[in-house]
Amino acid sequence: QVQLVESGGGLVQAGGSLRLSCAASGNIFKINNMGWYRQAPGKQRELVASITSGGSTNYADSVKGRFTISRDNAKNTVYLQMNSLKPEDTAVYYCTADLLDKSWYYNTYWGQGTQVTVSS
What is residue 77's predicted lDDT score, i.e. its pLDDT? Predict the structure, then answer.
């Protein structure tokens, strides 16, 4: 069994910063891509950023230059540093991990989500 546990969400004023963390644990053999998605009320879930096991990154245009994704492979943890936050960044943020477990089952796992609210 695999679990992804997120932390670091909260309420912040526009222009402020938050750092999200997501730790994967359980029956893990190898993690490939990790990423962050978000879903605002009434909107579809969208990719915010992703990172490969080798450290290559990809960002949504709306967060380029403000958000930074990173990971610690030894800790099976992915981070999202969010700076210069805007009210439109308000959403539930979900982490994901594409991984192979020790039973040789490959799947994408999701965290439970963490709320980020940016006040104007």
Answer: 98
The sign of the dihedral angle between the CA atoms of 90, 98, 79, 61 is: negative
Distance CA 76, CA 28 (A): 9
Q: Are 118 and 13 in contact (CB under 8 A)?
A: yes
Q: Round to whole Å and give the CA distance between 2 and 85.
A: 31
CA atoms within 13 A on the CB side of 96: 16
Q: Look at residue 27 in the predicted model and tell me its pLDDT.
A: 94
Task: Please tell me the predicted confidence (pLDDT) of residue 73.
Answer: 96
Distance separating alpha carbons of residues 41 and 19, to the nearest angstrom: 21
pLDDT < 70 positions in the chain:
none
Where would I find the beta strands (DSSP E) of 1-120? 2-7, 10-13, 18-26, 28-39, 46-51, 57-59, 67-72, 77-82, 91-101, 106-110, 114-119
Structural contact between residues 91 and 6, judged by C-beta atoms closer than 8 angstroms? no
